[in-house]
């Protein structure tokens, strides 16, 4: 739960600093950050603004206007669907996906698939917290993955 982090302006600024520094050191060019509904929306835009790039939302089904790409995926407790606007990125654009937490990896994998359909180049999946015992990062296959904090 990142709620305490969001309540503390110094801690939140430090988080954004850490993510910005990691991305600047890792990638010379990023076109967009793509954030997962909903906590990726809290982290992604301030980092994107600092990097001088755009932010693309990946949302739960039925929330985005216009034509969308949609994917259904399994969660530990059922099924869900994610969508991205069909014109959100151009083929070949470099994207980093951001969220607060990686657990089983289902949502992150679905987001990767949506961006692959749009022919984006996924540079990395980036999260604040990783629950390592659930092995979600293994589902990402060859996509680079980075987490600030890991818990077993």
UniProtKB/TrEMBL annotation:
EC number: 2.4.2.7
Pathway: Purine metabolism; AMP biosynthesis via salvage pathway; AMP from adenine: step 1/1
Positions of the Phosphoribosyltransferase domain: 8-130
One Gene Ontology CC term in the entry: cytoplasm
Pfam families: Pribosyltran
Catalytic reaction equation(s): AMP + diphosphate = 5-phospho-alpha-D-ribose 1-diphosphate + adenine
Keywords: Acetylation, Cytoplasm, Glycosyltransferase, Phosphoprotein, Purine salvage, Transferase
GO BP field: adenine salvage; AMP salvage; purine ribonucleoside salvage
Entry annotated with the keyword Phosphoprotein: yes
Subcellular location per the Swiss-Prot or TrEMBL entry: Cytoplasm
Organism domain of life: Eukaryota
Uppermost EC category: transferase
InterPro entries in the cross-refs: Ade_phspho_trans, PRTase-like, PRTase_dom, UPRTase/APRTase
Keyword set includes Transcription regulation: no
GO MF: adenine binding; adenine phosphoribosyltransferase activity; AMP binding
Family: Belongs to the purine/pyrimidine phosphoribosyltransferase family.
Subunit description: Homodimer.
Role noted for this protein: Catalyzes a salvage reaction resulting in the formation of AMP, that is energically less costly than de novo synthesis.
The protein's name: Adenine phosphoribosyltransferase
Organism: Lanius ludovicianus
Organism phylogeny: Eukaryota, Metazoa, Chordata, Craniata, Vertebrata
Gene name, Swiss-Prot/TrEMBL: Aprt
């Amino acid at each position: 739960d990142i709620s305490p982090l969001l309540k503390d302006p110094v801690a939140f600024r430090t988080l954004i600093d850490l993510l910005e520094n990691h991305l600047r050191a890792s990638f010379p060019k990023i076109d967009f950050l793509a954030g997962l509904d909903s906590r990726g929306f809290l982290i992604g835009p301030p980092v994107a603004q600092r990097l001088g790039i755009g932010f693309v939302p990946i949302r739960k089904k039925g929330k985005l206007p216009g034509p969308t790409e949609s994917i259904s995926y399994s969660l530990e407790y059922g099924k869900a669907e994610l969508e991205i606007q069909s014109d959100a990125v151009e083929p070949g654009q470099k994207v980093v996906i951001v969220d607060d937490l990686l657990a089983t990896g289902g949502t992150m994998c679905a987001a990767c698939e949506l961006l692959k359909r749009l022919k984006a180049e996924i540079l990395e999946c980036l999260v604040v917290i990783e629950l390592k015992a659930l092995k979600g990062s293994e589902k990402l296959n060859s996509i680079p993955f980075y987490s600030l904090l890991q818990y077993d």
